[in-house]
Structures are given as structure tokens and as C-alpha cells.
Specification:
The protein is an alpha+beta fold and 235 residues long. It contains eight helices and nine strands. Strand 7 (183-189) and strand 8 (193-196) form a beta hairpin.
Length: 235
């Protein structure tokens, strides 16, 4: 148990964020959330940058998109959550040489790993691509009380007043937020808005998500034209 707790603590440690350091942008994955993507072009770009195995992962991602079309939103979030939770968890400083790098979904898929914000970002943009409305999704900074560390998850709200479902790379089973008593929300955002959260409720509106510098930087790297090479090759 002690060894498991130690691994869990190290795992979460790399997801730490200094809230003061994040100066409180939205873009869909490419141009509009449900636009038709050029699978051949995207796959070729990923393969050229990251290798053949990366191309296989992009094809698998497109398969998830294809198979999730027409399903209910709850089925879609399960498919997307399961797909991305197969990826490897890696500390930003080891992978990118940056203590807090927000990878684009294509970078995350290309390198086959990332840390907690990369999992959440990839799930968020993929669900947008499937047509899930932005106002039902929030990338959420939480405090994991069991290890006293900060962590990032994706929250899905079926209705404005509903208890959100939590998509997490630590606990891979999607659960209502009321069952995740280990997580205390700190702030959350989507493509338009930013909220300062309280332990209960949806939080207090704090303006536009454009206040997040990391988010503004990310929106310029969502395609395949600005793919960054990692410092650490995972394969």
C-alpha cells in the first residue's frame, strides 16, 4: 500500500500547477468543431514528424471518431475517455523539457503520452469534434486531497444544473463528481469562459478563458503545422 501511495504521489506531483503562475483562448481542433478533417493529410503529417507508430495512433483516433458518430453523448464520452487513457503518463519536464507544457491533441497522440492537462485537453477537443456542445464541457483544475497536489480533469455536464461526470486519467472509470470526494475544484474553463470554483456548485464566473496564457498559446498549435518534437522519445 505504501509503495502504491508513493507511485500515486509521484504521478500526481508532475501535474502540479502554481495557480498564481497561470495568468488568469479558444479554438476548436482545427477550425470548427464538427468540420470534416482531412485524415490522410493529418496522418501523413503525424507520421512524418513522429514515426509510423504515431500514424497508427492517429488512425485509431479517427476510428474512434467514426465509431462514435451518432452515439449518445454519454457513449461518446466513454469512448473518448477509454481511448486516451491508454496513453502513457509522462512528466512535462522529461518529455518536453518544459515544466508546464500544454501539448496539443496531435502532439499528445504523436508522442504517445503527456501529463494530466494533456489528457484533459485531448479529450475536450475530441468531444468538441464529435459535436458535444462547449457549454457542456469544462477543463477543471482540482486539488487531489489524498496527496495534497493539483491535478487536471475534464468535466461533462449533461444539463446546466446536473452533477458533472469526471473524465480522469488517474481514476479511469467515469464517475459523478459527488463520488470523487478526493477532488476539490479550484477553477475551470472552456472555450469561452473561466470560473473560480467552490467545493460545491458550478463556481463563480470570472471572465473569459482568454485570461489563461497557456490556453492562448495552445490555440495556435492545434493543427499539424507547429508540432513540437519531444526531448524524450517514448518509442
Amino acid at each position: 500500500m505504501k509503495a502504491k501511495r508513493g507511485r500515486h504521489k509521484r504521478y500526481l506531483k508532475v501535474c502540479q500547477f502554481s495557480i498564481m503562475a497561470l495568468a488568469l483562448g479558444f479554438s476548436c481542433l482545427y477550425a470548427s468543431p464538427t468540420q470534416t478533417l482531412d485524415a490522410n493529410y493529418i496522418t501523413a503529417a503525424i507520421e512524418s514528424r513522429y514515426g509510423d507508430r504515431a500514424g497508427m495512433r492517429v488512425r485509431a483516433w479517427f476510428k474512434v471518431l467514426d465509431e462514435s458518430q451518432g452515439l449518445s453523448e454519454k457513449e461518446q464520452i466513454v469512448n473518448v475517455n477509454n481511448f486516451f487513457n491508454l496513453f502513457r503518463f509522462v512528466d512535462d519536464i522529461k518529455l518536453w523539457g518544459d515544466s508546464n507544457y500544454w501539448a496539443s491533441p496531435m502532439e499528445f497522440i504523436g508522442v504517445n503520452g503527456g501529463d494530466c492537462e494533456d489528457f484533459s485537453i485531448a479529450k475536450y477537443f475530441t468531444l468538441l469534434q464529435l459535436g458535444v456542445p462547449d457549454d457542456k464541457l469544462r477543463i477543471t483544475m482540482v486539488k487531489a486531497t489524498s496527496v495534497n497536489q493539483y491535478h487536471m480533469v475534464l468535466a461533462y455536464y449533461e444539463t446546466p444544473g446536473s452533477i458533472p461526470l469526471v473524465l480522469d486519467n488517474l481514476d479511469r472509470v467515469i464517475k459523478p463528481a459527488t463520488q470523487r470526494t478526493d477532488l476539490i475544484p479550484v477553477y475551470s474553463f472552456n472555450g469561452r469562459q473561466l470560473w473560480l470554483n467552490k467545493e460545491k456548485g458550478r463556481g463563480v464566473l470570472a471572465g473569459s478563458s482568454e485570461r489563461l496564457e497557456k490556453w492562448n498559446d495552445l490555440k495556435h498549435r492545434l493543427g499539424v503545422e507547429r508540432l513540437k518534437m519531444p526531448k524524450l522519445r517514448l518509442e
